[in-house]
Amino acid sequence: MNVLIIGTGAIGSFYGSMLAKAGVAVSVVARTDFEYIRHHGIHVQSKLGNYHFMPRQVVRDAADLTEKPDYVLLCIKVVEQVDRPSLLRDALGQDTAIVLISNGIG
Question: What class is the 2-100 domain?
Answer without folding.
Answer: alpha beta
